[in-house]
Amino acid sequence: MELTVAAHPLLEVGAFITRFAQPLAQLATPNQIVQLIEPAAAAPLVSSDTVRTEVRQLLRHGGFRPSGRSKPAAEYLHAAHQEGRFPRINAAVDACNVVSLWSGLPISLVDADKLQQPLTVRVLPMGTSYVFNPSGQVIDAGGLVALCDAEGPTGTPVKDAQRTKTHDGTLRAISIVWGTRALPGRTAQATAWYRELVQTIAGATIEDVQVNA
To answer: Which tens digits make up the pLDDT trace of 5-37?
Structure first.
């Protein structure tokens, strides 16, 4: 799979595809991932105020306002973790969420078989919106950097589009780590760790994504 990334002074993308041996609903989340939800877990990366500040700067570049209900997804996970309500969804989402929690970088997880080529990462024009949950709620995403397919936005650092989210029957997913050049090395570290965790899921295999600048 190919991904074209538009020029951006801050954005640093980590991307890969995971193939699952069985539909997601049939796969258990490995203990290695579950243990990382514990408050005292030992993780190779730890978030900080500096990470949160730089991620917000990344999102602001195109004119988006990352605050309130439009804050970066990693901040939501951090708050949920602090309050003892960290979400458990399925093996793929759980792996995505623990890496986002500890790295402080937002991560999109999208069903690759629902995407229509070509795939691009770019800043969305002002006025762009999309549905992000089953009840049909819409986010105003103008100015936000996003993964887009032929039909529009699919994944963003804030909320992924409902139409391409993973589900019980997902067999192939693409992950996008939303990193920033202002945090040298962090995107690569987070992506490498993420790939390692995903491969603890029974039968999961990783494929590289060809990223074209």
So the answer is: 999 999 999 999 999 999 999 999 999 999 999
Residue 111 belongs to domain with CATH number: 3.50.40.10
Number of domains in the chain: 1
The HSE-up count of residue 71 (CA atoms within 13 Å, CB side) is 12
Full residue range of the structural domain in which residue 15 is found = 2-212
pTM here?
Answer: 0.97
Residue 39: per-residue pLDDT = 86
